[in-house]
Amino acid sequence: MHIEKQAVFGDPKAILLAISGQHHLPELLPLAVRLLAPDPRVALARIWLRRPPLESDCGRCRMAAECHHRDNCLYLVASYGHALHGQDPHWEGTNGAFRRMPLGVRKIGHIASSGETVQIDDVSTDLRWIVRPEWVRDEQIRSFFGLPLRYHNETLGVLALFSREAMEDSCREWLRMIADHLAAAIANARSLDEIERLKARLQQENEYLREEVAVASFGELVGNSPALQMISQQIDLVAPTDSSVLILGESGTGKELIARELHRRSNRSDRPLIKVNCAAVPRELYESEFFGHSKGSFTGAVRDRAGRFELADGGTLFLDEIGEIPLDLQAKLLRVLQEGELERIGEEQTRRLDVRVIAATNRNLREEAAEGRFRQDLFYRLSVFPIELAPLRERVQDIPLLAEHFLTRFARQLGRKPLKLTLANVQRLQRYAWPGNVRELQHVLERAVIISTDGKLRFNLPEERPSDRLRSAQPSNAARTDQVLSDQEVRSFEKENIRRALSASGGKVYGSGGAAERLGLKPTTLLSRMRAFGIQARP
Ligand SMILES: Nc1ncnc2c1ncn2[C@@H]1O[C@H](COP(=O)(O)OP(=O)(O)OP(=O)(O)O)[C@@H](O)[C@H]1O
């Protein structure tokens, strides 16, 4: 007996109209299979779509041995039918044994890779393509019709129909037409999704960039010391690759500038460089800041939010002060770096990302890793290509150019005539040891431009070298400077030093004359250390 086309599909024209009117994949695909299987004689209608597989899926795929296309896989995305046996009378699940099919494997994979239709009128006499004959027998399946979903010469996926009756030609003609409409509707829905995604991303990037504009550092690398020239060569070497880079150096040496330069010279420069200052993220918000969250996933999560990783997709993520990341988050970070995939908090969906990571720290991360304060595996992952920035006192050749650069810049900003830098000025600047490195030099020269109203350059420089300051500031029980201090002593010294800076600045952390400036630290770094030591700005 042949089935009438009306009996199989209801009203095929209405199906075409309904499919064309649906622009959202999550609704379109279930709708299509439901519309195709209203008659109990149609056993099962299914759609598989092609997409790049998640690495984790390939790892656990039971058909991995047969798969020769690791960059593309067929995912079962919609299923509907009427089972005679089994627990799910409507076969709606998409998580069963055939949830993924490698391209080229079995009939579904063959249809997708060849773009050919597969038609089996009587499966009981043609078992070539049948994996589970007992299922065919129990469910009384008679025929199979599988069509490629083709749009603009590309096979997007497969539409498959298992039916309990043979299909007549007119019926197959309608199915071909429906498959063509469905493919066009899928392509449209994807384009719309992409537009929505890009719109949301642009909005998020704009929000982020607005925050950043206020704090963005300026200009390019200034200096001509051999040390800086070597760094520039290293940047040229590593920038075009996707390797992780770890920038090491004291506070204020220009690590962030190097990160920006790496991004600028990379192939990702037309995508954003997203920065996270790991010292400034409150502990309880780390995961959300990095990986994002869905609305309602915790108190205060009032809307869906992309994390910094997602914002950096296609671009670069700069993790400043990486040494401050708590150990438990380090494990999660490592997983994302290794697998290139993440889930937002409160969401099941796995997102695949293409992010290049640059990290920076002023700590001795190797030592921290050796002593268990930083995960060794993460350290090795991040330090594929380490770049070490020497402190300014070890590259005094850079001081004249840097000083000129800052003087010109601040004079222009303040609307003053450029100040002349004399040889004596340069020698004086070169004698000082710059514990706050280039950032301190920058502040000293900014102040100099402000106070030099008569056109003659004057600057206030602490005349003593920091080693002298260190000696005079040492707690009384930590005797000579050649004495080696224990970790505990160094910490108590640092704590005491922060207290002194705060007391000298009257409790002011930020801005000119603030404790951060006196210590040559970023205010956020100082705040995180104060938190770690339990120090209040104003006792
Ligand atoms: N070679 C350089 N040329 C021009 N400006 C520089 C140079 N090095 C550093 N600077 C400037 O000095 C300031 C401090 O640099 P940056 O923030 O990159 O240091 P950092 O090492 O990341 O500091 P921290 O460890 O405190 O985060 C910035 O304003 C930066 O623009």
From TrEMBL:
Keywords: ATP-binding, DNA-binding, Lyase, Nucleotide-binding, Transcription, Transcription regulation. SUPFAM superfamilies: GAF domain-like, P-loop containing nucleoside triphosphate hydrolases. Residues 465-486 are annotated as: Disordered. It comes from the Bacteria. Residues 221-450 form the Sigma-54 factor interaction domain. GO terms for biological process: regulation of DNA-templated transcription. PROSITE patterns: SIGMA54_INTERACT_1 (PS00675), SIGMA54_INTERACT_2 (PS00676), SIGMA54_INTERACT_3 (PS00688), SIGMA54_INTERACT_4 (PS50045). One of its GO terms (molecular function) is ATP binding. The keyword Transcription applies. Residues 473-486 have a biased composition (Polar residues). CDD domains: AAA (cd00009). This is Formate hydrogenlyase transcriptional activator.
